[in-house]
Specification:
186 residues; 3 strands; globular
């Protein structure tokens, strides 16, 4: 997943792209959605701060409600104002949605100096940063559209050594607080 020191490079590389690609890859980061679902996203699937991926388009065959954070809603609001298409990401060449993201992704990752980083890693980044922020595996799995108890969710819960250290420190602080009878100053 995207490491904290890599994030500024990726966002800077995105800024150099046409608006279509800036918006597409930022929404991938902000929603954790699969690129195939983003490519075929339609305006009639977006209602306020919820995007419903239809069952026929979802990997598990069940509709997924994607909860849109304010930054994602802002991107979609701007795109909707400028849109004359049923598709959120219409192809600039043919009628319908964009068909591929690979050329744009190659430019972006080269500009950002990211090797072996693919579009699905944006989904991993979304889940991993939820874990770093303290979200439970149940919450992460639900936001990614995984079935309850899915083993796939654990893949996204990768932690940096800083997060593990901070978690250990918080746990030990609670233990020592309990051992001291919740007295101030330990």
């Amino acid at each position: 997943f995207l490491q904290p020191d890599e994030a500024p490079r990726l966002f800077s590389a995105l800024d150099a792209e046409p608006q279509l690609w800036q918006d597409f890859f930022r929404l991938a980061l902000l929603t954790g959605a699969r690129k195939s679902n983003l490519r075929t996203m339609r305006w009639d699937q977006v209602h306020g701060n919820i995007w419903t991926i239809p069952a026929g388009s979802a990997k598990a065959g069940k509709a997924i409600d994607v909860h849109l954070v304010p930054d994602a809603v802002a991107i979609l609001d701007r795109r909707r104002r400028d849109s004359r298409s049923d598709w959120v990401f219409p192809s600039p060449v043919v009628s319908g949605p964009i068909s591929t993201v690979s050329a744009a992704w190659r430019r972006i990752t080269q500009r950002a100096g990211l090797e072996n980083f693919n579009p699905h890693d944006l989904r991993r980044t979304f889940g991993s940063y939820q874990a770093l922020a303290g979200s439970s595996l149940v919450e992460i799995g639900r936001s990614l559209g995984h079935a309850p108890g899915s083993k796939a969710t654990a893949i996204y819960a990768r932690l940096t050594s800083d997060a593990v250290r901070q978690s250990a420190e918080r746990g030990v602080a609670k233990l020592l607080e309990a051992a001291n009878g919740n007295k101030e100053g330990g």
